């Protein structure tokens, strides 16, 4: 079985780590951001009470795999936020910092293995332990439980998938039939001190009405989950 839920909000920001003063967002939730969202829902303590950079939930996520579907068209929104000026407060107590947000985001997440049982228990009751958000604490997330669905392996053949596609060796796509596609490299896994362990290249659509057509999958894990055909990231 796979647990399926949706997360939506007014804004989202999945910050690119190499942007400094003005924060720029990835166009979709990265697996590392999804890991934090799952940990918040089931109550895995990140340890930030002792060390601000800690992410102690990573060992508990071992064996969990996810798939990510974009349900709302990608729309960008820029805003300037008023922050405390900690470096030179004598000049001005506040500074204004530009941020790039995703406007009115909505995503569907498929989760299998690892923490799946604990996640289902919380989602089915409509509960969470820590406040769920979409990338940053001021982008609160509304969570909707969709259900649990059996997943079935597929024979290698041409398929149209609804999810973000990890780009793995042997993958062949029909870009014209897909209506175009975008490529990005996103963080996939972190250490407990939030240092980067691994990134993965992905292919994605910004229009949820379009599906990505796969001709050959190679090493990619593709299954049917309910009525959808999804592509899985490797298990953490």
Please give the structural blueprint.
Blueprint (H helix, E strand, L loop, with lengths): L1 E7 L2 E2 L1 E2 L9 E2 L4 H12 L22 E6 L5 E9 L9 E10 L2 E7 L3 H10 L16 E8 L1 E3 L5 E3 L3 E2 L5 E2 L1 H4 L3 E9 L5 E9 L7 E5 L4 E5 L2 E5 L4
Antiparallel strand pairs: 1-8, 1-9, 2-7, 3-4, 5-8, 6-7, 10-17, 11-16, 12-15, 13-16, 14-15, 17-18
Question: Explain this structure to me?
Answer:
With 236 residues, the protein is mainly β. It has a single domain, classed as Alpha-Beta Plaits (2-Layer Sandwich), CATH 3.30.70. Helices cover 11% and strands 41% of the residues. The protein contains 3 helices and 18 strands. The chain has helices at 31-42, 116-125, 175-178; strands at 2-8, 11-12, 14-15, 25-26, 65-70, 76-84, 94-103, 106-112, 142-149, 151-153, 159-161, 165-166, 172-173, 182-190, 196-204, 212-216, 221-225, 228-232. The strands form 6 sheets. A 4-stranded antiparallel β-sheet has the order 5-8-1-9, covered by helices on one side. The chain has a 3-stranded antiparallel β-sheet with strand order 2-7-6, with no helix packed on it. A 3-stranded antiparallel β-sheet has the order 10-17-18, with no helix packed on it. The longest helix is centred in the first third of the chain and has 12 residues, at 31-42. The chain is globular and about 65 Å long. The chain starts with a strand and ends with a strand.
List the strand order in the largest sheet: 5-8-1-9
Describe the global form.
globular
- State the share of residues found in helices, binned by percent: 10-25%
Percent of sequence in beta strands: 35-45%
Order of helices and strands: EEEEHEEEEHEEEEEHEEEEE
């Amino acid at each position: 079985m796979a647990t399926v839920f949706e997360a939506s909000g007014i804004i989202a920001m999945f910050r690119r780590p190499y942007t400094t003063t003005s924060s720029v967002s990835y166009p979709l939730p990265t697996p590392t951001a999804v890991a934090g969202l799952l940990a918040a829902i089931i109550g895995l303590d990140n340890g930030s009470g002792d060390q601000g950079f800690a992410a102690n939930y990573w060992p508990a996520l071992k064996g969990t795999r996810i798939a990510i579907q974009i349900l709302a068209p990608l729309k960008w929104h820029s805003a300037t936020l008023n922050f405390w000026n900690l470096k030179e407060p004598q000049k001005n107590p506040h500074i204004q910092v530009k941020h790039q947000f995703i406007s009115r985001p909505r995503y569907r997440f498929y989760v299998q293995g690892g923490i799946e049982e604990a996640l289902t228990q919380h989602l089915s009751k409509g509960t969470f332990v820590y406040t769920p958000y979409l990338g940053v604490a001021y982008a609160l997330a509304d969570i909707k439980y969709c259900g649990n669905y059996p997943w079935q392996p597929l024979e290698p053949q041409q398929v149209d998938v609804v999810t973000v596609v990890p780009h793995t060796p042997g993958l062949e796509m029909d870009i014209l039939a897909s209506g175009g596609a975008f490529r990005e490299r996103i963080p996939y896994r972190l250490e407990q001190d939030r240092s980067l362990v691994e990134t993965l290249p992905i292919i994605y659509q910004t229009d949820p009405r379009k599906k990505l057509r796969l001709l050959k999958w190679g090493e990619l894990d593709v299954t049917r989950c309910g009525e959808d055909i999804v592509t899985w990231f490797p298990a953490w």
